[in-house]
Design brief:
Layout (H helix, E strand, L loop, with lengths): L6 E8 L3 H12 L5 E3 L13 E2 L9 E2 H14 L3 E3 L3 E5 L8 E5 L3 E10 L3 E3 L5 H5 L5 E2 L2 H4 L7 E5 L3 H13 L2 E5 L9 H8 L4 E4 L2 E7 L6 E6 L5 E5 L2 E4 L3 E3 L30 E3 L11 H24 L1
Parallel strand pairs: 1-2, 1-8, 2-5, 8-19, 10-17, 11-12, 11-17, 12-13
Antiparallel strand pairs: 3-4, 6-7, 7-8, 9-18, 14-15, 15-16
The structure holds NADPH dihydro-nicotinamide-adenine-dinucleotide phosphate.
C-alpha cells in the first residue's frame, strides 16, 4: 500500500463485546468483509465477569472470557478480521455514501464505508483499594448478572439513582437482606422507584451513608459504613457488595462528532442503530443506558450489521 492510499474497509467494527462480535457475525455472513478492532479490553465488560448464567443457550452457564473467545471464533469462522488495536480518532463524512476515516493506535489511518460503534460503557467504581481488591470476590457492578450467587444472603448496594433502586429491589427478591447506601439525604431515583425501595421490607435504606471500607481478604465478608453527617462508623456482615453509581459510555473520541445525550450515550434513531451520521451505526451499551445486558447488546449488534448492509445496498443503488 502506498503512503497516500489508505486501506478501504467496507464495514469497520469498533469494540469486541457481545455487540461488536454479533455485528461481526452478521456482517461477515452478509459478505461485508468486516474488520473488527478490539480496543483496550478485548472481550469487553464480560471478561471481568466470572459466570454468565443468563445468556440463552447455555443451560449450565458459561464464564465470561470463554464466551467472548467463542464469539470471536464464530465471527472469524465467517471471515471477520479481528485486529488488536484501539481507535484513537475519527473523521466522519457527513455525506451519504461518504468515506469515513479512522485512526488506529494514533498511527494508522484507515477508510471505511460503514462503521459500527460497539465501544461499550464502563461501570464506575468508588475507587477504594479494598473495593478494587475484591472485584470478582464479592464486589460487583451488575446485580442482574451476579445477584443470583447471593441467594438468601445479606448484601449491600451503593447508589441512589434509578439503577441502584432497581437493582436493590431485584436483589431484595433473591437475598435475605439488602442494605442500601445513599450518600445524600435524598435519592436521585424517580419517585416511583423510591417508593418501591421504601416499601420493600428487606431493604435497609441508609441515607448520608458511604462505604468506609470493604472487609475480607479473598472474598467480601463485611462492610464498614460511615455516616457522613454524624461521623459514626458501623460494621455489618455481608457477602456481596453491589456498586450502582452509574456508567460511563466509552464515547470520548466521538464527542462533537455524533449526537449524544447529556451523559455521553450515542443517540440512535428509533427502532434502528442509525446515528446522525450516514453510514455510522451504534450498538450495545454505548447507546443503551437502560437494559445493559449481553443479550440486548448482541441484539443491537445484529441490528447494526443489518442496518449497515441495507445502507450499503441503498447507496450502491442510488
Ligand atoms: P445516576 O447517575 O442517575 O445515579 C448515580 C447515583 O450514584 C446517584 O445517586 C449518585 O449520588 C450516586 N453516586 C455517584 N458517585 C458516587 C460515589 N462515589 N459514592 C456514592 N454514591 C455515588 O446513574 P444510574 O445508573 O442510576 O442511572 C443512569 C441513567 O439511566 C439515569 O438517567 C436513569 O434515570 C436511567 N435509568 C433508567 C432506568 C429505567 O428507566 N428503568 C433504570 C436504570 C437507569 P448523588 O445523587 O449524590 O450524585
Amino acid at each position: 500500500m502506498s503512503e497516500n492510499k489508505l486501506e478501504r474497509i467496507k464495514c469497520l467494527i469498533i469494540g469486541s463485546g457481545p455487540a461488536g462480535y454479533t455485528a461481526a457475525i452478521y456482517a461477515s455472513r452478509a459478505d461485508l468483509k468486516p474488520v473488527l478492532y478490539t480496543g483496550m479490553e478485548p472481550g469487553g465488560q464480560l471478561t471481568t465477569t466470572t459466570e454468565v448464567d443468563n445468556f440463552p443457550g447455555y443451560p449450565e452457564g458459561i464464564d465470561g472470557p470463554t464466551m467472548m473467545i467463542q464469539l470471536q471464533k464464530q465471527a472469524e469462522r465467517f471471515g471477520t478480521e479481528v485486529r488488536m488495536g484501539m481507535v484513537t480518532e475519527v473523521d466522519f463524512s457527513t455525506e451519504r455514501g461518504g468515506i469515513h476515516k479512522v485512526c488506529v493506535d494514533n498511527t494508522t489511518w484507515v477508510e471505511a464505508e460503514t462503521i459500527i460503534i460497539s465501544t461499550g460503557a464502563t461501570a464506575k467504581y468508588l475507587g477504594l483499594p479494598s473495593e478494587q481488591r475484591l472485584r470478582g470476590g464479592g464486589v460487583s457492578a451488575c446485580a442482574v448478572c451476579d445477584g443470583f450467587f447471593y441467594k438468601n444472603q445479606d448484601v449491600a448496594i451503593v447508589g441512589g439513582g434509578d439503577t441502584a433502586a432497581e437493582e436493590a429491589t431485584y436483589l431484595a427478591n433473591i437475598c435475605n437482606k439488602v442494605t442500601m447506601l445513599v450518600r445524600k439525604d435524598e435519592m436521585r431515583a424517580s419517585k416511583a422507584m423510591q417508593h418501591r425501595v421504601t416499601t420493600t421490607k428487606n431493604i435497609d435504606l441508609r441515607y448520608n451513608t458511604e462505604v468506609d471500607e470493604v472487609l475480607g481478604e479473598q472474598v467480601v465478608e463485611g462492610l464498614r459504613m460511615l455516616n457522613n453527617k454524624t461521623g459514626e462508623k458501623e460494621t455489618i456482615a455481608i457477602t456481596g457488595l453491589f456498586i450502582a453509581i452509574g456508567h460511563k459510555p466509552n464515547t470520548d473520541i466521538f464527542k462533537g462528532k455524533l449526537t449524544m445525550d447529556e451523559s455521553g450515550y450515542v443517540l440512535t434513531e428509533l427502532k434502528s442503530t442509525k446515528t446522525n451520521i450516514p453510514g455510522v451505526f451504534a450498538s450495545g451499551d454505548v447507546q443503551d443506558n437502560v437494559y445493559r445486558q449481553a443479550i440486548t447488546a448482541a441484539g443491537t449488534g445484529c441490528m447494526a450489521a443489518l442496518d449497515a448492509e441495507r445502507y450499503l445496498g441503498e447507496v450502491e443503488a442510488e
